[in-house]
Amino acid sequence: FTSTRDSVKSMSSLVAQRPRVVQLYKTLLYLGRDYPQGYDFFKVKCHGAFMRNKDLPPEQVEEWLAKGDYIVKELEALYMLKKYRTLKRRYYKDVDFLN
To answer: How far apart are CA 95 and CA 1, in angstroms?
Structure first.
């Protein structure tokens, strides 16, 4: 009886995690459009990472979701910094400290 309860609990957590994983994947692909090495490079790497980790137990899936959220934040910071540097270069062309 205990193993049945554990398997039902495991299945319910998998069902709850699936939409979060799919949303993370879509978010990463959206952010990958502006990746410095190109969208195709990013898409292949992202897809490979998700496929490598498709059979993880639910506890590890939670850890990887947290890591994925961290990567999303890092990518957003990278793009903001890139935009800031571009704007600064555009409006302060004569200043030497920017190069």
So the answer is: 73
- In contact, 32 and 43? CB cutoff 8 Å: yes
pLDDT at 14 over 80: no
Angle at 65 between CA 6 and CA 23, to 5 degrees: 105
Q: What is the pLDDT of residues 48-67, one digit of tens each?
A: 999 999 999 999 999 999 99
Q: What letter would DSSP give residue 24?
A: H
Dist CA 99 CA 53 (whole Å): 41
Residues 6+ apart with CB under 8 A from 31: 72, 75, 76, 79
Q: How far is the C-alpha of 39 from the C-alpha of 32, rounded, in Å?
A: 6
User: Is it the case that residue 13 has pLDDT exceeding 70?
Assistant: no
Q: How far is CA 9 from CA 3, 14, 21, 25, 61, in A?
A: 10, 9, 18, 24, 15
Residue 28 to residue 72: CA distance in whole angstroms: 7
